[in-house]
Amino acid sequence: MKAIWNGQVIAESNDTVVIENNHYFPHDSIKKEYFEKSDSKSVCPWKGEASYYTIKVDGNENLDAAWYYPEVSELAKGIKNRVAFWKGVTVES
Questions:
Q1: Which CATH number fits domain 2-92: 2.170.150.40, 3.30.300.30, 3.40.190.10, 1.20.1260.10?
Q2: Second label for 40, Cα 20 to 30 Å away, from 3, 52, 64, 86?
Q3: Residue-wise DSSP of 33-92
Q4: What backbone phi and psi angles, to 5 degrees, belong to 79?
């Protein structure tokens, strides 16, 4: 699977976990040069507190377009150390 934004592959892995129609990529499969940690947070009742990355490609910025759970609940242990995408990031095989 590939995560693509602004014409650039920003993550690639054959080992994604799909939860609620989102592909969670292993954290080490993201191309870190395109990711900048954000101060944004949100809470999922069953997964825990999410943190975000802003994606930057070729001078364009996609605010909080990737998220991950630094600490996951017992129910969400399958997505520990994984990153998911939204806000126009396409995921395709």
A1: 2.170.150.40
A2: 3
A3: GGEEEEEEEEEETTTEEEEEEEEEETTEEEEEEEEE-SS--GGGGGGTTEEEE-TT-EEE
A4: -110, 15
Quote the pTM value. 0.94
Residue carrying the six token digits 């395709």: 92
Q: What is the pLDDT of residue 61?
A: 98
Binned at pLDDT 50, 70 and 90, residue 85 comes out as: very high
Are 67 and 50 in contact by the 8 Å Cβ rule? The answer is yes
Residues 6 or more apart in contact with residue 58 via CB below 8 angstroms: 6, 7, 8
> Is the separation of the CB atoms in 5 and 88 below 8 Å?
yes
Contact 10, 89 (CB under 8 A): yes
27, 12 Cβ separation under 8 angstroms = no
